[in-house]
Amino acid sequence: MDWYNPSDTDIPKGHFIDGRFMSFNDDTSVDVICPSTGQAYAALNYASPDTVEFAVSQAYQAYRTNSWASMAPRERAKYLFQWAELIEKHQASLAQLESLGSSRPYHEVLQWDIPYVVDCLRFFAELADKHGGYVGATQQDRLGMVISQPYGVIGAITPWNFPMSMLMWKVGPALAAGNAVVLKPSEMTPFTSVYLAKLAVDAGIPANQFNVVQGDGKTVGQAICEHSLIGKVTFTGSTATGAAIMSTCALKGPKPSTLELGGKSPQVVFADADIDKTALTVAKAITGNAGQVCVSGSRLIIHQDIAETFSQKVLSHFSQLRMGPTWNKSTTLPPIISAGQAQRINSIVNQSIAQGAERLCGGELINDGGSFFTPTLLAITDNNNCAVQQEIFGPVLTMQTFDSDEQAWALASHETYGLAAGIHTQNLQRALTGMRQIEAGSVWINRYGRSFDHIMPTGGFKQSGIGKDIGVEAFQANLKTKSVLIDF
Ligand code: ADP
């Protein structure tokens, strides 16, 4: 049974600039593949350099001349709230478009992604008038004020794993703070972004305040980062691409960037944890969106006394997952985004086994139209094994055992990444010690994953990123400060 018929989906065409859908003669047309079937389902216009130039200059003009940045912040918030309402109204079509083009199952988009996007937008709208500067301790015969103002045009580059949620992480705070935005979504999941941009205009947000240009990273994404009228870049994606973007921002500016990058997050489970609840949490944290989540809990670090019992429970949860297209009602394990990505997962798993990992289940690449990967558990003793060291971005969990707290914390820390970590124990002292020890931007104790508490910023340490998304910090990151001195 299907939630909808995929061939009945309306696909928006073109970029979204100047408050409307636009295509240009010198755009290149490229097929977009549906991850569930492996077939092309639509064509995407890749922007030419002229199109990028047009989108950015329109956004800059809008920033300079529109009422948006200068309007009373509560008024700005009103339009953002109207946008949130429209997103809710269009949730069924948005969910269909999102699930057709990505690995997000339809019912999960409706139950999780849309409420998350809407709530996140409302959180940032509420912040629009909840900030200010300060008066400095200057000499008595002058007044020194530190005020904040928007950057101007924010360049936003987003990945394919949660297309609408990642968009709102960037666009919500940028608009709430008074900026204009030029967004380039992933070329693999491009269509819900222009739909959302159209709804923004329908909600009364001025044209060109939020423009979307379509295309690949190396040309279109790069051109956005290079553009002199882009005041700041915000990005979520791989560490390698984040580094490339930071280097472009350094050379073509310099301009600041916020980067939310890769992870290899540990789930540390002690013998005193609630075993049943934790096994389910651990299984979900690596199989949700088929493991294609930056904060996937991909390294199980478990006390040796419970490793056998615990891993059996995780395997039992794995075995209940059903692969299928995102629109099928029984699907609980969605496809891998592309055949190439599935091949990459497969080759790391094979290499890991060749390096001594014991495969406790899974490890199978299944091509059934789309590419699927069976949930995999690898028992590993060598911390240098490639499955422990590399981000896999698939449903592959490594398991390492410890017999002392010190050993647990040592294994939990990762040479490269520091995005998130889970600690599972009934012992408060142990949990809080681990919380301090582990080098990660988010630590979850007796739970795993983000919540709707948008007040909690997210972002990585080490090569997992720079700066924060969500939270008040993400809002403030869209403002720059200016010092003003007035002589009496
Ligand atoms: P993936 O390869 O898995 O899609 P990336 O991190 O490379 O992950 O992509 C995330 C986003 O970054 C996408 O929108 C992609 O088009 C964009 N991108 C890729 N390379 C660059 C680049 N050099 N400059 C700017 N954006 C890029």
Automatic annotation (TrEMBL):
Keyword Oxidoreductase belongs to the record: yes
Cited InterPro entries: Ald_DH/histidinol_DH, Ald_DH_C, Ald_DH_CS_GLU, Ald_DH_N, Aldehyde_DH_dom
UniProt GO molecular function: betaine-aldehyde dehydrogenase (NAD+) activity
Enzyme class: oxidoreductase
SUPFAM superfamilies membership: ALDH-like
Signal peptide: none
Domain Aldehyde dehydrogenase: 28-484
Keywords: Oxidoreductase
EC number: 1.2.1.8
Active-site residues annotated for this sequence: 260
Keyword Oxidoreductase on entry: yes
Family label: Belongs to the aldehyde dehydrogenase family.
Protein name per UniProt: NAD/NADP-dependent betaine aldehyde dehydrogenase
